[in-house]
Design goal:
Shape: globular
Distance between the termini: 42 Å
Radius of gyration: 16 Å
Number of helices: 6
Number of domains: 1
Length: 171
């Protein structure tokens, strides 16, 4: 019986899935709206589970605060573009450019998390319970997927205030 993936394996799988979706979008001639919607859904769920479960565990375990703050700002920047994409359509003048910039931002964010000395490396050094965190991430992902079947909520930011976004309580 295969073992369940741990937290970092789950988060890395999310990264690979979104990278593949961005590549499909870049090569698409049609169905761009569907691909963009899927990208936005995956990224929204990923940021929520990281911000609610993984990042707090990392912070509590002593992962570098500056690195964690940068990750939160990167998430919020992505949420601003997600809100723009959700409000627009592929017929909009800057739509493709917004998807491209979102792809570049996510590629940078993933490198920061996965690189040697990045968040994932520091989390491993902190001796977190990755199996328990993986279970929590998976359960929360399933809740969010069910909740978002009818559409994404407005993104909630941790570090930024913008008219298109909701501010997370306490932020």
């Amino acid at each position: 019986m295969p073992s369940k993936p741990d937290a970092i394996s789950l988060l890395k799988a999310d990264h690979r899935k979104v990278e593949a979706l961005f590549e499909k979008y870049e090569n698409a001639r049609s169905k761009k709206a569907d691909l963009a919607r899927q990208i936005c859904m995956e990224l929204t769920i990923h940021t929520i589970i990281e911000e609610e479960i993984f990042y707090p565990a990392c912070r509590e375990a002593g992962v570098d605060n500056d690195m964690m703050n940068e990750a939160n700002v990167e998430h919020d920047s992505a949420k601003m573009l997600i809100a723009e994409l959700e409000a627009g359509s592929p017929d909009d003048e800057f739509y493709d450019a917004k998807v491209k910039v979102l792809s570049e931002e996510i590629r940078h964010h993933v490198r920061e998390e996965e690189k040697r000395g990045g968040i994932f490396t520091e989390a491993r050094k902190a001796d977190l319970d990755f199996d328990m965190l993986g279970d929590q991430l998976l359960a929360r992902r399933q809740e969010l997927m069910a909740a978002f079947e009818s559409g994404l909520p407005r993104p909630m930011t941790v570090t930024m205030k913008a008219p298109a976004l909701e501010q997370r309580p306490g932020a």
